[in-house]
Structures
1.
Amino acid sequence: MRSLLLTITSALLLPSCATMVNGSKQFVGVTTYPAGASLFVDGKPVPFKTPASVELSRSKRGHILRMESPGYQPAELFLQPRESDWTWCNIILGGLPGLIIDLSTGGIWYYDHINFNLAPLPEKLKK
């Protein structure tokens, strides 16, 4: 009886594990060489320069990050979301309802931090 009560309590409290642990947004650290690059996320300017921590919504679609610095070639990269390990908590304990919640909030996804070396412009383009 005690194990049945524990199972029922867990099933009620643990759905949407990834959303509870991760939330629907994430701060992603962005470091560039050289430091001081301007950042754009999905085409919108970020109000600070690298190194920075940028708050991003968690999304299966990911985000496009652009970095610009004088004397260096602009760089653009796609932030590919990765599946959170907390997703397995849902599959094992929360079942379909928890998985649906995590998919709808984006809590199922996370992004890695970015370290990026910008390439210098060729000498003929610097003038």
2.
Amino acid sequence: MAFSRWPRRLAIALLCFGLTCKAEQRIETGPYDIYYTAFPSMLVPAETAQQHKITRSPNRILLNIAVRNDETPTQVGITGTSLNLLNQSQILNFTEIKEQSAIYYLAEVINHEQDTLRFSITIEFPTDHPSYELTFQRQYY
């Protein structure tokens, strides 16, 4: 069935784009590894974007976050905001994507022309481990 291949294609596309953009990062906190990347939504193939309701646009950035515990995909609570150079804030609305071997969270950010975006993301783990504040910034041209 072609539909079941879409999540796998999206995961492969996100991983490849994250690596080619050199935007993928990894943070360790206790037993958890947090992987995150932010890249232009135009890099997502049109069919994949349509399937997952991702807006492809030159002014959209896509965030991808995944958490693993000892190589096992982990479901987490995740919230966040982005802030541009004018201190204009956008709330990040994350969508959870589940696959057999992965769980990841996607959010879209509107970006106008050249700007530096600062991201602040709170990750709540399913255990007693304290929440993690992930902060990073990216410059877009």
3.
Amino acid sequence: MDNIDRQILTMLQKNARMPNSDIAKQLNKAPSAIFERIKKLEKNGAILGYQARINPKSVGMNLVAFVSIQIEAGNWMDACGEEFSAIKGVEEVHEVVGTYSYLLKIRVGGMEDLVKLIKTKIGAIPEVKGTSTTMVSHSIKSDCPIDIDLYHGEKGENK
């Protein structure tokens, strides 16, 4: 991946609907070359997909919580990660190091939905030994694009 690919990724993170011709103009390249680069970035997994960003509150998803989970086996089990991932309302599943084995980001309509999800979905998984929940009162920064230049610098060299 070179500096042009990183610039393309940065532009697409800001606006995934940006036409190839606009990207090409900004990078002083042919639209066909940009199209080929984007297809290559998709094929090699740098671009995972394209999606609309929806305001969660506009669809009644008003509560965000992080749930730390201890499991009986001590550490991670592929089956547990898959089961957590399949629960509606679970946005993220992370394997973590420390007292807990997993950290889940959950978004639901409200407190009753959260309690029900923890009791009937997470608690129903036999390997779950315990949970600890932290509710978000206000999100200051979320849905952040990846800072591609943070590691590579502006000219593409590793810092």
